[in-house]
Amino acid sequence: PEQKLVLLVVNDVMRTLDGRLSSNRRPFNVANHTVGIESRVDDVTNLLCSGDDHTSIIGIQGVGGIGKTTIAKAVCNELSNQFEATSFLSDISEKSKQPNGLASLRGQLISEISETGLEKDAPTMKRALVILDDVDRVDQIDELLDRQHLFAAGSKIIVTTRCEDVLIMKGIENHKIYKPNELDEDESLRLFSYHAFLSERPLEGFVELSEQVVQLTGGLPLELEIFGSLFYNIRTEDEWEEMLVRLMSAQDQDVQGIQHGGIQERLRIAYEELDSNEKRIFLDIACFFIGRGKEYAMHMWEACGLHPSSAIEVLLRKSLVQIDSEKDEFVMHDRIRDMGREIVISEGVMRSRFWNEDGITEALQNNE
């Protein structure tokens, strides 16, 4: 067993290194069902490519779940062949909290935009398309982009963030900030239907109910996917109406700010519909395994007597987790991740999982 675990770790490291070395021409995984993405990609492309051939930076800003990362990935896929290299630094807000997190991200950036992977070899830097995804502090941008010699002339940089102040503090002018709109009613119904019915339109008898669910989402793609997946296995009108009442009640609590430790009640419903095995594996992924190899985690869960294959199949179907098909790694939206971690935090000082130094230190101090 120990040899097998060592082999899994080695394979995980090699897969990560191989992903970095070959990522410059590998298309990014975008959502299975994209609605309205073409016009948004065109808007960002026009904004990015306007002006001269100097290195320039733009922002994509909006609330969580509106599709900023999806748009950025789609832009990368559209424009990558116009650049010598691409670098997508994901989940910067979360990774920067880890020891040497920004240094690791900077190393990834340098390895992907230079010929040798060494910062000292400035003349070998490429004309690159760089995405800094999910930034929440201006110092994160400064740390990653503080040396202009890293980028050859004509390089373009996209920063995605929820915080407009971060972009303003970086000196990005308002006309260089793209703020994606929510999906309109028709787009929202189509995206919901893809996940609830596996078709572009609701089944007969469910049109009005679907429209009521869609209204609760405010046109946010993430919620449309989660809610659509939630209704996928519900096939009677009575059951639909019962779930709709639950969502409407949760909507009222969200509006009033009545939340369990900040957890959005509407998203929490998707978690509550899981069985105990699925909940444990979901929380493990949210706390420990985002960006980690699936095989390693599967081996651990099986050793603990859990049933990961069936659980992951359910989590995928419910849009609570994705798997990067190239790297075979777990991917989770930051709002879903935050929901999972807040569920764990709500357990109190005896909580079941710790994923950072601050949480461990606090628990030890409370137990003194």
Which topology of the largest domain does CATH recognise? Answer: Rossmann fold
How many distinct domains? 3
Termini separation comes to 36 Å
Shape descriptor reads: globular
Report the C-alpha radius of gyration, rounded. 21 Å
Question: Architecture of the largest domain in CATH?
Answer: 3-Layer(aba) Sandwich
Top-tier CATH class of the largest domain: Alpha Beta
**Fraction of residues in helix:** 40-55%
Question: In what order do the strands lie side by side in the largest sheet?
Answer: 2-3-4-1-5
CATH H level, superfamily name of the largest domain: P-loop containing nucleotide triphosphate hydrolases
Number of strands: 7
Largest sheet: 5 strands, parallel
Given the structure, what is the number of helices?
Answer: 17
Mean pLDDT rating: 85
- How big a fraction of the residues is strand? 5-15%
Runs with pLDDT <50, length 5+?
Answer: 17-23, 258-262
**H/E series:** HHEHEHHEHEHEHHHHHHHHEEHH
Give me the secondary-structure category. alpha/beta
Protein name: AAA+ ATPase domain-containing protein
GO molecular function: ADP binding
Pfam family, one: WHD_ROQ1
Domain AAA+ ATPase: 54-203
